[in-house]
Structure to design on (439 residues):
RNA sequence: GCGAUAGUAGCUCAGUUGGUUAGAGCACUGGUUUGUGGUACCAGGGGUCGCGGGUUCGAAUCCCGUCUUUCGCCCCA
């Protein structure tokens, strides 16, 4: 027997329909925000990812040499492909660019709760706009997706932070430009590491000041309101005014989006990646347990880094399907879908062929229809009709066939009505419009 | 890559100090039923007990290895 590779999943119909439910919501809400769907290759040159993330990334990729001796990798993320695409079309694209994608991604990592080697991600990015209203639009989209999936403010929260604020605060603490990436990285990890480990990392970045810096960082991480932030920034002069203004703008835009109730100001969010430049955020289940449901932020210089010539500001976020499915399931928000036809044909052996012709008419009229492939009795066929979950049985015996009619039985109410075969589709639509057949 | 946990039918699980032909429920298929359905009753199919080796007269059971699952570490784009 063969099994799926570790970290990969099969999707039999029920699981597939649950997955497609997520996809449907992603697409519908993204369109409501006027984001355009795009796609990119699943297989890319290995260097595309090395360029962005460094050589260490290779160990976490599915990669191999193709038959033309090209080093290639299954995509672990979409941003580099997006940057290439945007850069290729350069300045000819009207701004802002609002694009989204829904696709499978691959990472060669140890499978764990909420993390596999193959997973689906919804990516939304907004490029060519520097104003915070763009960042707010994306968080608005994220919130709208979660709300459409049935979650409320009791179910999830978005922790909002700002890299620019961190950079100013750290500058104020005497952290040099060169040491910044390492310090930010240590801050990002500090939430899931022992304090000693963080201090060690900080000492490496800034010799002998790790301990005092760690004290300050812990204080900053506790900031959870605009007032507290303003107080802390107060010592920085005019730079502080600009930062506070950005925060105020952001929060008032989020209010306008109806997203404010989901937002927690939380400076402990930094995100591991070096390329974030502005607001960053992560969505979590309300209890704070588990992996992030989604994450994103502003990355104003990444496109230039990857493309070499086109400089375009950008922000975006991604939602992974595994943590989200787990979360929705635990809240009973992933209903089991009934994959049922609308109609089921019940007929005598003599009427099989004309029955299938009738089925063909119903199908063209938009009604999903099944029938038994075997010659079995009426009783058996009714049993199968019931099991199929169909709303109506189409009954075609000698009585009906002789008079070019067909009996329609509402399998929920048990009521029946004999109608002309010519009017099948229109009568079925009528039955559905009035809530079925009643006696 | 490291540590822990588990693996018996499609699913959930029994299986005695090692002892005859490995079981149950659900699911599936067929029948009771050749014009009225999901119930009921009856029957059936389906297992190299994860895989490989070892101990033993005899292994689902004990030992070793290996693969896979789940959880944690590392990492988390």
């Amino acid at each position: 027997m063969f099994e799926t590779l570790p970290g990969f999943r099969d999707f039999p119909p029920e699981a597939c329909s649950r997955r497609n439910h997520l996809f449907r919501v992603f697409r519908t809400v993204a369109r409501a925000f006027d984001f355009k769907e795009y796609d990119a290759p699943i297989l890319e040159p290995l260097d595309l990812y090395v360029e962005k993330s460094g050589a260490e990334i290779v160990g976490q990729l599915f990669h191999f040499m193709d038959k033309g001796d090209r080093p290639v990798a299954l995509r672990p993320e979409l941003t580099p492909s997006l940057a290439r695409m945007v850069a290729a079309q350069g300045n000819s694209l009207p701004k802002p660019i609002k694009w989204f994608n829904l696709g499978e991604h691959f990472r060669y990592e140890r499978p764990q709760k909420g993390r596999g080697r193959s997973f689906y991600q919804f990516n939304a990015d907004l490029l060519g706009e520097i104003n915070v209203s763009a960042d707010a639009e994306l968080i608005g989209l994220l919130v709208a997706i979660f709300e459409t999936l049935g979650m409320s403010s009791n179910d999830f929260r978005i922790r909002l932070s700002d890299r620019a604020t961190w950079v100013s605060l750290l500058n104020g603490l005497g952290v040099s430009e060169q040491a910044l990436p390492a310090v930010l990285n240590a801050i990002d990890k500090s939430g899931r590491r022992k304090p000693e480990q963080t201090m060690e990392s900080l000492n490496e970045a800034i010799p002998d000041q790790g301990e005092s810096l760690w004290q300050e960082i812990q204080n900053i991480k506790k900031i959870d309101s605009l007032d507290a932030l303003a107080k802390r920034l107060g010592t920085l002069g005019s730079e502080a005014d600009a930062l506070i203004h950005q925060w105020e703008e952001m929060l008032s835009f989020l209010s306008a989006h109806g997203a404010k109730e989901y937002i927690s100001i939380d400076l402990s969010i930094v995100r591991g990646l070096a390329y974030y430049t502005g607001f960053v955020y992560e969505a979590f289940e309300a209890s704070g347990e588990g992996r992030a449901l989604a994450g994103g932020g502003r990355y104003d210089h990444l496109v230039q880094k990857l493309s070499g010539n086109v400089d375009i500001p950008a922000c975006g976020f991604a939602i992974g399907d595994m943590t989200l499915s787990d979360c929705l399931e635990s809240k009973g928000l992933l209903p089991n879908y009934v994959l049922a036809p609308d109609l089921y044909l019940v007929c005598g052996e003599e009427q099989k062929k004309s029955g299938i012709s009738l089925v063909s008419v119903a199908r063209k009229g938009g009604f999903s229809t099944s029938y038994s492939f075997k010659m079995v009795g009426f009783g058996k066929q009714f049993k199968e009709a019931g099991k199929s979950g169909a709303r109506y049985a189409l009954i075609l015996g000698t009585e009906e066939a002789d008079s070019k009619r067909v009996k329609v039985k509402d399998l929920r109410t048990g009521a029946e009505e004999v109608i002309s075969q010519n009017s099948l589709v229109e009568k079925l639509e009528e039955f559905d419009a009035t809530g079925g057949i009643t006696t």
Summary: The CA atoms of residues 24 and 217 of chain A lie 42 Å apart. Chain A is about 40% helix and 20% strand. The radius of gyration of chain A is 29 Å.
